[in-house]
Amino acid sequence: MGWFSSSKSSETLDPTSRQDRQRCWDSRDAYFACLDANNIVKPGDEGNACAETKKKYEQSCAKSWIDYFNKRRVLADQQQGVLTQARTQAESVRSR
Amino acid sequence: MSARSLLSAFSRASSCSFPRRALSTRHAISRPTGGAARLPSVTFACRAYSQQTPPDPSSSTSQDPKQNPLHQTSSGERDRATVGVFTPTAAALFVLTGVGLFFYFRNEKEKLLEQRRKEREDSQVGRPQVGGPFSLTTHKGEPFTEKDLLGKWSLIYFGFTNCPDICPEELDKMSAAVDKLDTEYGPIVQPIFISVDPARDTVAQVARYVREFHPRLVGLTGDYATLKATCKAYRVYFSTPPNARAEDDYLVDHSIFFYFMDPNGQFVDAFGKASTVGDVVERVKKEVARWEREYGRKV
Protein backbone atom coordinates (compact mmCIF):
# COMPACT_ATOMS: atom_id res chain seq x y z
CA MET A 1 0.00 0.00 0.00
CA GLY A 2 1.15 3.44 -0.87
CA TRP A 3 1.25 5.11 2.49
CA PHE A 4 3.82 2.75 3.88
CA SER A 5 6.69 4.09 1.88
CA SER A 6 9.52 3.77 4.43
CA SER A 7 9.98 0.00 4.41
CA LYS A 8 8.40 -1.48 1.35
CA SER A 9 10.26 -4.74 1.90
CA SER A 10 8.48 -5.62 5.14
CA GLU A 11 4.83 -6.47 5.68
CA THR A 12 2.63 -3.49 5.01
CA LEU A 13 0.96 -1.50 7.76
CA ASP A 14 -2.72 -0.87 7.40
CA PRO A 15 -3.57 2.07 9.65
CA THR A 16 -7.24 1.18 9.44
CA SER A 17 -6.58 -2.14 11.12
CA ARG A 18 -6.76 -2.13 14.88
CA GLN A 19 -4.42 -5.11 14.96
CA ASP A 20 -1.79 -3.36 12.88
CA ARG A 21 -1.98 -0.26 15.01
CA GLN A 22 -1.57 -2.34 18.13
CA ARG A 23 1.44 -4.13 16.62
CA CYS A 24 3.06 -0.78 15.88
CA TRP A 25 2.40 0.51 19.39
CA ASP A 26 3.78 -2.67 20.95
CA SER A 27 6.99 -2.50 18.93
CA ARG A 28 7.33 1.16 19.86
CA ASP A 29 6.90 0.39 23.54
CA ALA A 30 9.52 -2.36 23.35
CA TYR A 31 11.98 -0.05 21.65
CA PHE A 32 11.37 2.80 24.09
CA ALA A 33 11.75 0.40 27.02
CA CYS A 34 15.13 -0.54 25.65
CA LEU A 35 16.08 3.13 25.36
CA ASP A 36 14.97 3.68 28.95
CA ALA A 37 17.11 0.75 30.08
CA ASN A 38 20.09 2.42 28.43
CA ASN A 39 19.23 5.84 29.83
CA ILE A 40 18.72 7.33 26.43
CA VAL A 41 16.07 9.93 25.74
CA LYS A 42 16.40 10.79 22.08
CA PRO A 43 15.82 7.84 19.74
CA GLY A 44 18.85 7.41 17.47
CA ASP A 45 21.37 8.28 20.19
CA GLU A 46 21.58 4.74 21.40
CA GLY A 47 24.05 3.47 18.76
CA ASN A 48 23.56 -0.25 18.30
CA ALA A 49 22.23 -0.92 21.78
CA CYS A 50 18.62 -1.45 20.70
CA ALA A 51 19.13 -2.55 17.13
CA GLU A 52 16.74 -5.47 17.33
CA THR A 53 13.77 -3.64 18.83
CA LYS A 54 14.44 -0.71 16.53
CA LYS A 55 14.24 -2.91 13.48
CA LYS A 56 10.96 -4.34 14.62
CA TYR A 57 9.68 -0.84 15.35
CA GLU A 58 10.59 0.42 11.90
CA GLN A 59 8.97 -2.59 10.29
CA SER A 60 5.74 -2.23 12.20
CA CYS A 61 5.13 1.50 11.95
CA ALA A 62 4.89 4.03 9.14
CA LYS A 63 7.74 6.51 8.85
CA SER A 64 5.49 9.40 9.78
CA TRP A 65 4.30 7.57 12.87
CA ILE A 66 7.88 6.82 13.92
CA ASP A 67 8.84 10.47 13.53
CA TYR A 68 5.81 11.48 15.54
CA PHE A 69 6.39 8.98 18.36
CA ASN A 70 10.10 9.84 18.57
CA LYS A 71 9.44 13.55 18.73
CA ARG A 72 6.82 13.07 21.31
CA ARG A 73 9.16 11.00 23.47
CA VAL A 74 11.69 13.82 23.51
CA LEU A 75 8.98 16.39 24.21
CA ALA A 76 7.51 14.31 27.00
CA ASP A 77 10.95 14.06 28.58
CA GLN A 78 11.45 17.81 28.39
CA GLN A 79 8.04 18.32 29.86
CA GLN A 80 8.89 15.92 32.65
CA GLY A 81 12.05 17.92 33.35
CA VAL A 82 10.13 21.18 33.52
CA LEU A 83 7.51 19.65 35.78
CA THR A 84 10.15 18.20 38.13
CA GLN A 85 11.89 21.55 38.25
CA ALA A 86 8.63 23.32 39.01
CA ARG A 87 7.88 20.84 41.75
CA THR A 88 11.27 21.23 43.44
CA GLN A 89 10.91 25.01 43.18
CA ALA A 90 7.48 24.87 44.76
CA GLU A 91 8.80 22.67 47.54
CA SER A 92 11.74 24.96 48.26
CA VAL A 93 9.37 27.91 48.47
CA ARG A 94 7.09 26.03 50.81
CA SER A 95 9.94 24.94 53.13
CA ARG A 96 11.28 28.47 53.36
CA MET B 1 -69.23 74.40 39.88
CA SER B 2 -65.58 74.98 40.65
CA ALA B 3 -63.21 72.07 41.21
CA ARG B 4 -62.84 73.05 44.83
CA SER B 5 -66.50 73.04 45.59
CA LEU B 6 -66.92 69.79 43.70
CA LEU B 7 -64.22 68.26 45.87
CA SER B 8 -65.81 69.46 49.08
CA ALA B 9 -69.20 68.30 47.88
CA PHE B 10 -67.74 64.89 47.22
CA SER B 11 -66.09 64.75 50.62
CA ARG B 12 -69.37 65.58 52.22
CA ALA B 13 -71.23 63.13 50.12
CA SER B 14 -68.87 60.33 50.99
CA SER B 15 -68.63 61.24 54.64
CA CYS B 16 -72.34 61.63 55.03
CA SER B 17 -73.38 58.43 53.42
CA PHE B 18 -71.65 56.14 55.84
CA PRO B 19 -73.75 53.14 56.71
CA ARG B 20 -75.18 52.85 60.13
CA ARG B 21 -72.62 50.36 61.28
CA ALA B 22 -69.63 52.19 59.88
CA LEU B 23 -70.77 55.35 61.48
CA SER B 24 -71.71 53.86 64.82
CA THR B 25 -68.42 54.50 66.58
CA ARG B 26 -68.26 58.13 65.55
CA HIS B 27 -71.91 58.40 66.31
CA ALA B 28 -71.34 57.04 69.79
CA ILE B 29 -68.60 59.60 70.42
CA SER B 30 -70.56 62.55 69.17
CA ARG B 31 -73.80 61.47 70.73
CA PRO B 32 -72.97 59.10 73.58
CA THR B 33 -76.53 59.21 74.78
CA GLY B 34 -78.04 58.73 71.33
CA GLY B 35 -79.96 55.48 71.04
CA ALA B 36 -81.43 54.72 67.63
CA ALA B 37 -79.53 56.18 64.69
CA ARG B 38 -82.27 58.35 63.38
CA LEU B 39 -81.79 60.70 60.51
CA PRO B 40 -81.23 63.91 62.50
CA SER B 41 -78.43 62.45 64.55
CA VAL B 42 -76.69 61.09 61.46
CA THR B 43 -76.90 64.35 59.61
CA PHE B 44 -75.57 66.04 62.71
CA ALA B 45 -72.62 63.71 62.77
CA CYS B 46 -72.25 64.27 59.11
CA ARG B 47 -72.12 67.98 59.51
CA ALA B 48 -69.78 67.73 62.42
CA TYR B 49 -67.42 65.69 60.26
CA SER B 50 -67.56 67.97 57.28
CA GLN B 51 -66.96 70.94 59.52
CA GLN B 52 -63.64 69.48 60.51
CA THR B 53 -62.38 70.24 57.01
CA PRO B 54 -61.23 73.83 56.40
CA PRO B 55 -64.08 76.30 56.03
CA ASP B 56 -65.47 76.19 52.56
CA PRO B 57 -67.43 78.99 50.91
CA SER B 58 -69.80 76.47 49.39
CA SER B 59 -70.35 74.65 52.66
CA SER B 60 -73.49 76.58 53.18
CA THR B 61 -75.05 74.56 50.41
CA SER B 62 -74.76 71.49 52.55
CA GLN B 63 -77.39 72.99 54.75
CA ASP B 64 -79.80 72.13 52.03
CA PRO B 65 -78.85 68.78 50.54
CA LYS B 66 -81.34 69.17 47.72
CA GLN B 67 -79.11 71.82 46.15
CA ASN B 68 -76.17 69.46 46.01
CA PRO B 69 -76.36 67.28 42.93
CA LEU B 70 -73.96 64.71 44.38
CA HIS B 71 -75.76 64.58 47.64
CA GLN B 72 -78.81 62.83 46.33
CA THR B 73 -79.52 61.29 49.68
CA SER B 74 -81.65 64.05 50.99
CA SER B 75 -83.56 61.33 52.68
CA GLY B 76 -80.47 59.45 53.84
CA GLU B 77 -82.54 56.69 55.41
CA ARG B 78 -83.90 55.45 52.11
CA ASP B 79 -80.40 55.55 50.61
CA ARG B 80 -78.84 53.57 53.42
CA ALA B 81 -81.64 51.07 53.26
CA THR B 82 -81.16 50.45 49.53
CA VAL B 83 -77.38 50.21 49.50
CA GLY B 84 -76.93 48.44 52.83
CA VAL B 85 -73.25 48.03 53.74
CA PHE B 86 -72.26 48.34 50.12
CA THR B 87 -71.65 52.06 49.96
CA PRO B 88 -69.86 53.88 47.14
CA THR B 89 -66.73 54.06 49.30
CA ALA B 90 -66.76 50.39 50.03
CA ALA B 91 -67.49 49.70 46.39
CA ALA B 92 -64.69 51.97 45.28
CA LEU B 93 -62.30 50.42 47.78
CA PHE B 94 -63.36 46.95 46.70
CA VAL B 95 -62.98 47.69 43.02
CA LEU B 96 -59.69 49.51 43.54
CA THR B 97 -58.26 46.66 45.60
CA GLY B 98 -59.44 44.16 43.03
CA VAL B 99 -57.98 46.10 40.14
CA GLY B 100 -54.81 46.71 42.11
CA LEU B 101 -54.41 43.03 42.92
CA PHE B 102 -55.18 42.08 39.37
CA PHE B 103 -52.46 44.32 38.00
CA TYR B 104 -50.07 43.34 40.76
CA PHE B 105 -50.41 39.64 40.04
CA ARG B 106 -50.35 40.16 36.32
CA ASN B 107 -47.18 42.14 36.74
CA GLU B 108 -45.65 39.47 38.97
CA LYS B 109 -46.54 36.74 36.51
CA GLU B 110 -45.07 38.71 33.66
CA LYS B 111 -41.89 39.21 35.64
CA LEU B 112 -41.66 35.48 36.29
CA LEU B 113 -42.25 34.61 32.66
CA GLU B 114 -39.73 37.20 31.59
CA GLN B 115 -37.18 35.73 33.95
CA ARG B 116 -37.80 32.22 32.69
CA ARG B 117 -37.57 33.36 29.09
CA LYS B 118 -34.32 35.14 29.83
CA GLU B 119 -32.92 32.00 31.41
CA ARG B 120 -33.81 30.02 28.34
CA GLU B 121 -32.29 32.68 26.14
CA ASP B 122 -29.12 32.69 28.18
CA SER B 123 -28.51 29.06 27.48
CA GLN B 124 -28.97 29.83 23.79
CA VAL B 125 -26.76 32.88 23.90
CA GLY B 126 -24.00 30.83 25.46
CA ARG B 127 -23.85 28.54 22.47
CA PRO B 128 -20.95 28.92 20.08
CA GLN B 129 -21.69 29.07 16.40
CA VAL B 130 -20.48 25.57 15.60
CA GLY B 131 -21.88 23.60 12.73
CA GLY B 132 -23.51 24.44 9.46
CA PRO B 133 -24.50 23.02 6.14
CA PHE B 134 -22.29 20.38 4.57
CA SER B 135 -22.60 17.65 1.98
CA LEU B 136 -20.34 14.64 2.37
CA THR B 137 -20.31 10.95 1.51
CA THR B 138 -20.71 8.14 4.03
CA HIS B 139 -18.46 5.10 4.20
CA LYS B 140 -21.25 3.27 2.36
CA GLY B 141 -21.11 5.76 -0.49
CA GLU B 142 -24.38 7.48 0.41
CA PRO B 143 -24.81 11.25 0.60
CA PHE B 144 -24.90 12.77 4.06
CA THR B 145 -25.78 16.36 4.88
CA GLU B 146 -26.37 18.38 8.02
CA LYS B 147 -30.06 17.42 7.69
CA ASP B 148 -29.16 13.83 8.48
CA LEU B 149 -28.06 15.02 11.92
CA LEU B 150 -31.61 16.09 12.80
CA GLY B 151 -33.76 14.00 15.10
CA LYS B 152 -30.80 12.38 16.86
CA TRP B 153 -28.12 13.42 19.25
CA SER B 154 -24.73 13.19 17.63
CA LEU B 155 -21.11 12.91 18.61
CA ILE B 156 -18.84 14.10 15.82
CA TYR B 157 -15.11 13.50 15.68
CA PHE B 158 -12.82 14.98 13.05
CA GLY B 159 -9.73 12.90 12.31
CA PHE B 160 -7.94 10.83 9.71
CA THR B 161 -7.41 7.13 9.24
CA ASN B 162 -3.61 7.39 9.24
CA CYS B 163 -3.69 8.98 12.66
CA PRO B 164 -1.04 7.39 14.90
CA ASP B 165 -2.75 7.25 18.27
CA ILE B 166 -4.99 10.12 19.30
CA CYS B 167 -7.79 9.52 16.78
CA PRO B 168 -8.17 5.82 17.59
CA GLU B 169 -8.13 6.60 21.30
CA GLU B 170 -10.75 9.30 20.96
CA LEU B 171 -12.91 7.17 18.69
CA ASP B 172 -12.68 4.29 21.17
CA LYS B 173 -13.74 6.65 23.91
CA MET B 174 -16.63 7.92 21.83
CA SER B 175 -17.72 4.37 20.95
CA ALA B 176 -17.59 3.29 24.59
CA ALA B 177 -19.74 6.27 25.54
CA VAL B 178 -22.24 5.49 22.78
CA ASP B 179 -22.41 1.86 23.94
CA LYS B 180 -23.25 2.99 27.47
CA LEU B 181 -25.85 5.46 26.23
CA ASP B 182 -27.35 2.79 23.96
CA THR B 183 -28.02 0.54 26.93
CA GLU B 184 -29.61 3.48 28.74
CA TYR B 185 -31.74 5.00 26.00
CA GLY B 186 -31.49 2.87 22.89
CA PRO B 187 -29.84 4.21 19.76
CA ILE B 188 -30.54 7.92 20.16
CA VAL B 189 -26.90 9.04 19.90
CA GLN B 190 -25.30 8.86 16.48
CA PRO B 191 -21.49 8.61 16.40
CA ILE B 192 -19.91 10.28 13.37
CA PHE B 193 -16.36 10.41 12.08
CA ILE B 194 -15.44 13.11 9.57
CA SER B 195 -12.15 12.81 7.74
CA VAL B 196 -9.77 15.74 7.49
CA ASP B 197 -7.51 13.91 5.03
CA PRO B 198 -9.29 13.95 1.67
CA ALA B 199 -6.24 12.76 -0.30
CA ARG B 200 -5.93 9.41 1.46
CA ASP B 201 -9.30 8.84 3.11
CA THR B 202 -11.34 7.38 0.31
CA VAL B 203 -14.78 5.95 0.95
CA ALA B 204 -13.28 2.43 1.02
CA GLN B 205 -10.51 3.46 3.41
CA VAL B 206 -12.99 5.13 5.77
CA ALA B 207 -15.26 2.07 5.58
CA ARG B 208 -12.41 -0.19 6.69
CA TYR B 209 -11.57 2.24 9.46
CA VAL B 210 -14.97 2.82 11.05
CA ARG B 211 -16.08 -0.82 11.19
CA GLU B 212 -13.58 -1.50 13.98
CA PHE B 213 -14.94 1.12 16.31
CA HIS B 214 -18.71 1.06 16.55
CA PRO B 215 -21.29 -0.71 14.40
CA ARG B 216 -23.27 2.51 14.04
CA LEU B 217 -20.29 4.81 13.49
CA VAL B 218 -20.77 6.74 10.26
CA GLY B 219 -17.57 7.72 8.46
CA LEU B 220 -17.78 10.78 6.24
CA THR B 221 -15.40 11.98 3.61
CA GLY B 222 -15.36 14.20 0.56
CA ASP B 223 -13.07 16.25 -1.63
CA TYR B 224 -10.68 18.82 -0.28
CA ALA B 225 -12.92 21.87 -0.79
CA THR B 226 -15.96 20.19 0.77
CA LEU B 227 -14.05 18.96 3.79
CA LYS B 228 -12.34 22.30 4.25
CA ALA B 229 -15.72 24.07 4.18
CA THR B 230 -17.21 21.56 6.63
CA CYS B 231 -14.30 21.95 9.00
CA LYS B 232 -14.58 25.71 8.77
CA ALA B 233 -18.25 25.54 9.72
CA TYR B 234 -17.34 23.32 12.67
CA ARG B 235 -14.38 25.47 13.67
CA VAL B 236 -12.01 22.59 13.11
CA TYR B 237 -8.46 23.28 12.06
CA PHE B 238 -6.52 20.85 9.90
CA SER B 239 -3.19 21.06 8.15
CA THR B 240 -3.44 18.67 5.19
CA PRO B 241 -1.83 20.33 2.21
CA PRO B 242 -4.28 20.68 -0.72
CA ASN B 243 -1.84 18.98 -3.09
CA ALA B 244 -1.10 15.93 -0.90
CA ARG B 245 -1.10 12.65 -2.76
CA ALA B 246 -2.56 9.40 -1.56
CA GLU B 247 0.82 7.67 -1.54
CA ASP B 248 2.47 10.33 0.60
CA ASP B 249 3.34 9.47 4.17
CA TYR B 250 2.36 12.40 6.30
CA LEU B 251 0.43 13.23 9.40
CA VAL B 252 -2.39 15.72 9.67
CA ASP B 253 -2.32 18.21 12.44
CA HIS B 254 -5.90 18.83 13.46
CA SER B 255 -8.26 19.78 16.29
CA ILE B 256 -8.96 16.73 18.39
CA PHE B 257 -12.24 17.67 20.02
CA PHE B 258 -15.34 15.70 19.45
CA TYR B 259 -18.55 17.59 19.31
CA PHE B 260 -21.84 16.89 20.98
CA MET B 261 -24.80 18.16 18.96
CA ASP B 262 -28.50 18.16 19.85
CA PRO B 263 -31.37 16.74 17.73
CA ASN B 264 -31.78 20.17 16.11
CA GLY B 265 -28.21 19.95 14.87
CA GLN B 266 -27.15 22.64 17.36
CA PHE B 267 -23.83 22.51 19.14
CA VAL B 268 -24.05 21.55 22.82
CA ASP B 269 -20.53 20.79 24.00
CA ALA B 270 -17.09 19.62 22.98
CA PHE B 271 -14.99 16.94 24.62
CA GLY B 272 -11.23 17.02 24.64
CA LYS B 273 -8.58 14.46 25.40
CA ALA B 274 -8.99 15.02 29.14
CA SER B 275 -12.66 13.97 29.15
CA THR B 276 -13.29 10.39 30.18
CA VAL B 277 -16.02 8.06 28.94
CA GLY B 278 -17.85 8.77 32.20
CA ASP B 279 -17.65 12.53 31.62
CA VAL B 280 -19.13 12.18 28.16
CA VAL B 281 -21.93 9.88 29.31
CA GLU B 282 -22.84 12.17 32.21
CA ARG B 283 -22.89 15.24 30.01
CA VAL B 284 -25.08 13.59 27.39
CA LYS B 285 -27.46 12.26 30.04
CA LYS B 286 -27.81 15.69 31.59
CA GLU B 287 -28.62 17.23 28.24
CA VAL B 288 -31.07 14.48 27.27
CA ALA B 289 -32.87 14.97 30.59
CA ARG B 290 -33.13 18.69 29.98
CA TRP B 291 -34.41 18.06 26.47
CA GLU B 292 -37.00 15.67 27.81
CA ARG B 293 -38.19 18.24 30.33
CA GLU B 294 -38.57 20.84 27.61
CA TYR B 295 -39.99 18.78 24.75
CA GLY B 296 -41.37 15.73 26.50
CA ARG B 297 -39.24 13.32 24.46
CA LYS B 298 -35.65 12.20 24.34
CA VAL B 299 -34.77 13.23 20.79
TrEMBL record, chain A:
Main location per the UniProt record: mitochondrion
Signal peptide range in chain numbering: none
Polar residues bias spans: 1-16
Localization per Swiss-Prot or TrEMBL: Mitochondrion
Record key words, sorted: Disulfide bond, Mitochondrion
Disulfide bond among keywords: yes
InterPro entries: COA6_fun, COX6B-like, CX6/COA6-like_sf
Record PROSITE patterns: CHCH
Region (Disordered): 1-21
Entry keyword annotation includes Mitochondrion: yes
GO CC entries: mitochondrion
PANTHER family membership: CYTOCHROME C OXIDASE ASSEMBLY FACTOR 6
Similarity remark: Belongs to the cytochrome c oxidase subunit 6B family.
Protein name: Uncharacterized protein
Lineage, top ranks: Eukaryota, Fungi, Dikarya, Basidiomycota, Agaricomycotina
From TrEMBL, chain B:
Record-level GO BP terms: intracellular copper ion homeostasis; mitochondrial respiratory chain complex IV assembly
Signal sequence extent: none
CDD domains: SCO (cd02968)
Region annotation Disordered: where it falls in the sequence: 49-79, 115-138
Residues given in the record as Cu cation binding sites: 163, 167, 254
Compartment list: Mitochondrion inner membrane
PANTHER family: AT19154P, ELECTRON TRANSPORT PROTIN SCO1/SENC FAMILY MEMBER
Name by which UniProt lists this protein: SCO1 protein
Originating organism: Trametes coccinea (strain BRFM310)
